[in-house]
Every structure is written in C-alpha cells, then in structure tokens.
Amino acid sequence: MSDTDIKSYMQSIGREARAASRLVAKAETADKNKALTAMAEAIDRDTKTLLAANAKDLEHARTKGLEAAMIDRLALSQKSIANMAEGLQQIAALADPIGEITGLSYRPSGIQVGKMRVPLGVIGIIYEARPNVTADAAGLCLKAGNAAILRGGSEAIHSNQAIAKCVREGLVAAGLPESAIQVIETTDRAAVGELITMQKYVDVIVPRGGKGLIERISNEACVPVIKHLDGVCHVYIDDQADFDKAIRIADNAKTQRYGTCNTMETLLVHTEIARTILPVLGKIYLEKGVELRGDEAARAMITPMNPATEEDWSTEYLAPILSIRIVDNLDQAIEHINRYGSQHTDAIITENYTRARRFLREVDSSSVMVNTTTRFADGFEYGLGAEIGISTDKIHARGPVGLEGLTSQKYIVLGDGQIRQ
Amino acid sequence: MSDTDIKSYMQSIGREARAASRLVAKAETADKNKALTAMAEAIDRDTKTLLAANAKDLEHARTKGLEAAMIDRLALSQKSIANMAEGLQQIAALADPIGEITGLSYRPSGIQVGKMRVPLGVIGIIYEARPNVTADAAGLCLKAGNAAILRGGSEAIHSNQAIAKCVREGLVAAGLPESAIQVIETTDRAAVGELITMQKYVDVIVPRGGKGLIERISNEACVPVIKHLDGVCHVYIDDQADFDKAIRIADNAKTQRYGTCNTMETLLVHTEIARTILPVLGKIYLEKGVELRGDEAARAMITPMNPATEEDWSTEYLAPILSIRIVDNLDQAIEHINRYGSQHTDAIITENYTRARRFLREVDSSSVMVNTTTRFADGFEYGLGAEIGISTDKIHARGPVGLEGLTSQKYIVLGDGQIRQ
Question: ipTM more than 0.90?
Fold first, then answer.
C-alpha cells in the first residue's frame, strides 16, 4: 500500500473502532462474557488451523534468519493455544469494572456527587512477536468496555490473523460489533505511525515489547501512552535484616527467572551486614552461574567478581548477571535506587519498623516492597486477574495494569432540580 | 536570552525542581501547612507591593492596547489579593492526600498488596493573564507533595514575580526548599517549548487558558498534559421532565454566568414537550438578552430565533448565545451530545428512571448530571476543596481536578520472607 492508502485504511479502522466503542461501552456484562467464552471455544476448536498459520510464520522467520529468542516467542503449541483460550475464560470470570459507582455523597447544595467507572474508548496495542497477546489484549480491552486496534509484529502476521478470526467469531456470537476488535492487516510500519497519531479515534496506546520499540512509540505518539521502558529492580539488605529472609529473597529475586522485568538487577547491601551475608549469597549466585559485578568493597568479599562500571547501575541485564553495591545506610540505598532505578519494583529487607516505613514512602517506584521478592510484581500475583502490562509511568496507571487501568472514572451528579446561586 | 541560554536556564530550573520534589514528597503535613499559611500571611502583608507590581503590568498592558477582558483578568484588587491569601489558608485546611494507603489485602502467596497515594513529582503550569493562578497552583501542587514550575503570561510578569516572592518566603519559613515552587523569570516563548519537552524533569503539564494556548501546548508537548479544551455543555429536556425543574435548570445553566466553561451552550428538547416548554423558556432567554439560534422546528416555536448552522452545534459561545435543537427521543439526544459535545458536562432533565440511568451510562462526558444544572461542575461544588482545572481527557483525571488529580498511586507489598515459586 502507498502511504496515502495506509492513511485512509487506518482512518477507516479508526472510525469503525470509535463507532464500535460506543456499542461496547454500553454492552451488558453477560454479552461481553458470552463473546469471551465464544472466542475461547473458537480458539480451542481451531487449534490445528492456528498451528498451521503459526508454522507459516515460523518458516518465514527461519528463512529470514531471526534470532532464536524471537522464534521462541513466536512459536505456538497445543499447550500455549489452550492457555490462550483458558486466559479468555478467566477474563470472562472477572468482575465487570464498568458502571461501578463510588463515593456518592451529598453536598451542601443538595446535589449528590460520585464517580462512575467507564471505558477509555479505543485502545491501540502495539506488540512484537508473541501471538498470544492478540487474544489477551482483545479479551482485556473488551471486558473493560473498550474497542481495540491491535498491531502485532509482522513476523506473526499469519498467526495473528488466525486468532483474529476466532476473536471476531466470538464478538458476532454475542451480537457485538466485529469492529470492536480489529487486527491491522498490513505489516507496513507507516500503519503504526498513523495509529499513534490518530487522536480523534484512539484514546490510549499500550506498546508491549523491547525498549527500542517503546521508546520510539512514546517519542512519536500524540495519543497518551501507557508503558514501561525497563525494569532495573533493586533489593536492599539492611543491617537489621533477618539473615534467612535476606538470603531467600535475594536468591529468588535474581535467580527464579532471569528474563523478566521484575527480576532484581542490582543488590544493595548495608556495610554492617555485608561481611557476613555477601560470602553466603555470592556462593549461591556463583553456583547458579550468575556473573557478579560489584564495587570495590563488594569485590573484597566475593571472588570472582568483575568491577561494576557506572553504566552497570542502570542496566537491565535480563540475564544471569547481577551488580552489587555496598552502602553505608538507608539514605544511600534510597538515593541509589531513585537515581539509577527505572521506577519499576524495589524491595527492602529489614526488621526495622521505621526504616521499612521510610523505604515505602521515599522510594519512587511503581511497586515498593518490604521483606519479599521483586518477582511478585505481577498482575496475577497482585490479584488483578490479568494484566495488559506493567506501567512505570506516574500518570493514570502505575505498576501492573489490569482491567481497571483500561478504564477511567467520570463524575455523576444527581439532583432534584437544584440550581447554582 | 539566546535560545541556548534559555535551554540551559530551563534545564537548571528543571534539575532544581526535580531535586526539590524529592524533599517535598516526604515533607510532613505540618510543614506543608506551615508553608501555605506563611505564604498567605506574606501575601496579606505585601498587599501594597503586589498592587504596585500589578499597576506596572496594567500600565504596560494599556500601552500595548490589550483588550478589556484581558486587562480585567490581569487586574488585582485588595479584595482579590485577600481572596488569594484566603485560598491558601483553605488549602492548608484540606486533608493531606499523600501517604494514604488503601486496599491492603492478603494474597494466596501470603504477601499483602495495597496502594499508597504519592505525588506526581514535578508539575508544570502554563497560564495566561490571571496572576492569582500563581498562588492557587503553588498551593495545590505543594499540598499534593509536588514541586512546581509556573509560567504565567508575559503581561503579568511583575505581579507574578511579586507573588512568587511571597511563595518563596512561605517555603523558607517552613524549612522547605525555595526551588519547590519556581516562577519562570523570562517571558520568552522558547521557555515554554523547553518546559513541555523536559521529560526528565517534568512529570505533567497543566495548561490553563484559551483554547489556542491549550491546543498548541498539547500538540507540542512530550510530557503528559492534563487539559480541557472547551466546554460545549448540553441540557436535554426529556418529555418526562418535571416542567418547573426543567425551566429552572435550563435558565440557570445558561444565564447564571455566560463566560464559564460549564455554562450550557446547546439546549436539546424532546419534541413532545417542546411546544409547551419552549415558548416559556424562549421568553426568559429573550428578556435576559440571550440570542437564540435553532433548528427549523425550534424556530417555529419562538420568535426571534436565528437559524443554527452546523458549526453552532460544536461552538462554545462563552456569551449570551444559545443554540436549540428539537430531538425525537433520548437516543437522538445522546447521539447529538456524543457527536458535537466536548465531553465536559451534560445534563438530562427527566423523571423517568430508565432514561436517567441510560443517560448517566451512555453520555461520554467528564460530568454527567440528572435534574441539575451544568453550572455545578466545579471543584468547590464537588467537595474537592479547590481545583487546578477541569479535565476533559480520559486518562488520569476526568472532570474537576483537585489535590487527588495531582497525585498518583504506587503499589506497596508487605511480606514476611515470601518468595515466588
């Protein structure tokens, strides 16, 4: 397609999404759930078709020589398809957030003022290889009363189209407009440029993928973006930490999974406890094959440990690498986190009441924890039921974003003829 | 200043604001209140100095031939200065939103998850002639634990600097950093361009002023913007409306004040009640000097009434002009509002339960009302205590924005050594 064609294609997608969003916003809970269940059933039924479409994408990816990690994210299996369907069933089982009225109270003028939870409208999701995002995002957006425009990676186009067919079938089965969830059919990059600047038709953009993609989108978007760039998460072991808890948590936060955004990347240790705890921790990490990089004081306590550079402190490794720094006190720990961190998730290990309270208040991150692992920063673990992503922004939504993050609240005012004097 | 100088001046303002924001975020409630009270006292004490500074601005404005409305907004008086001080005292009396913890509940893993209300960080306020915004915005931002960078209109520069001096004095009296509230000293427009793109130092921009200013800022900003463009507010009189309430409200919504954003600009009337109610309402409006513009059906019922053009339906008059349209039913009224309105404030007058419920749910505006006047859409009337503006955005804050709109929520997680399996 030419750029003009793409513009008019995207404008038409946007117009339809806006029109559909009005209908989805007022759809009954039962109809939204019916659509979600029908989508799940269609996905289950179409397992073979989905695998065949995915095989095409995989073949193409191998021909193009895409890296193994990318191919891994792209690949569907019977199990991952079943999980996709199960995810939609779980979203159907969540409470409907839309229409909830809170805080209705009378004002001196006699009017009653409260807030009603409402959909955002049209949500644009831009993601990379993972085809399961198509089903997850469609489900969450629909349950929260929104229309969605989905733009998956070009490498997953056949898989995404096959999933999109099941999604549309579910919408139709419940009498909802097909255009409530649209998957962009062109792989042209210009389509993304249109999507993130169609303020008239799109209310918010949620980019999911690597830091490069997300930075580019948030720099170029005119539409508000809910995003997280990276997760440089810290655990700070205070000198009043319980030794066993500190070992257990510092181990889990780094080694339970290496490639997730809530994995610890820097360990901060109070100088008073470092001499006793670091050798024990160092042994655990080294045995698990974690490369250690530290400041001078830390390197005096564990061997082998490479020197950490200034750059290390703000690096999200997503790999079995850990940077370690010895600090003099809580102030230094908080200062380090607020300076080098990415405002994602940070934890203190301490038995000291006042320090726990200070850490909770003064660390400016989307999740702040006491005596537990950063790995818990997750929509399911927090009880949101499902998440569309984790936000490190401060505006609108911070931390794991579930159904509620895809909604807004309007004021409602009930009167009996009151006028303003 | 050259553009390079402005850039480095603004960067230094930003850096200082960011540093101050960390201190203000953890400031005790008593200290914030002490600063607010000291600001109020300094403003009261400096009344003469403020009037003298304002006189300079007024003289300059007259020499430059600024329009009367602008000069009116610019002018300070003993009374308006006393109101400014009183406003700061009122903000001191409001509850501190920061640190409030909500929803702490246990998860199956044993961790306890909740949310803590936290400041946004650094807020940039860009406004036009009104010097009182300097004090109001400073007070609200500080109470919500934020640092602020204020950029008033060049025509009010002397007044704003004089108020800024009182604000700084208040901060110092409470031991808070002076740079928590900075008023930009240059009137160069390039400073605004810097302010709205310093993502590193500014968390949100709140523009206050005419539609032109706000459109320009939201198009050029990289930093998130909380804004309202205009208020095209509607009252819909249903055929099941109570006649007296309908008259009272439709009168009040238009004529109580003409120049405010929550004033009704279009009246929609159900065809069944139009013949009886429009002649009565028309008489009231015409006696008060309101120019009426209507569709053909409405014009058959009131004389004189000019024909309304397509453009009228989406115009914010801010003047004694009202457009009137006859609709066949509730659906047509809702469709008209969602199509031509500005998602500000809309009201239905009806005694019908189901229609009231439908209107509340389906009208996509920041305030939706039943049987009361749009003029109530206001932070004070809603009980927020004070407002920094009214947002017609959907992201983050909708409707009147008070202290809470200047805050965010982070997750807090409390554990006893739990790790993820």
Answer: yes
